[in-house]
Amino acid sequence: MGFLNGLFNDKGRDKKNTENKTDWIDLSSQDQLKEIVENSYDRMQIIFKHSTSCGISSMVLRSFKASFNLEPDKAQLYYLDLRRYRDISNEIANKFQVAHESPQVLVIRNGDVVEHDSHSDINRLQFNQFI
Fold first, then answer.
1. Residue 131, SS3?
2. Residues 100, 93: contact at Cβ < 8 Å?
3. Residue 129 forms part of a structural domain
4. What is the four-CA torsion angle of 53, 58, 61, 67, rounded to 10 degrees?
5. The domain that contains 38 carries what CATH number?
6. What is the helix (H) or strand (E) element at residue 108, kind and residue range?
């Protein structure tokens, strides 16, 4: 089974390739949603909704982290742990009128969701177009 270890774990990988380039803000309070809306007038706000018990969500999150390349002055990136904060996810769906999915990314500009996607489609998003 040694060859499977090489496929499914990070041991032995070049650290530069797996380095997290994202500056996450933990989304752990519904009060932060008001801040996200307010801040969206100055720069793009991105919410990544992640289910820590879902293998697909973990795979998409790893891919997202590896490919995300916006500088912090262009966007604020929020991480929502769905298992711990389902109530916040429900409020996001209500506030922004976007049905809940997992994993899911919402892009917020000028107080509104300008794009959202889920599952593997998340990694096809072109965030530069929303700056």
1. coil
2. yes
3. no
4. 180
5. 3.40.30.10
6. strand 104-109
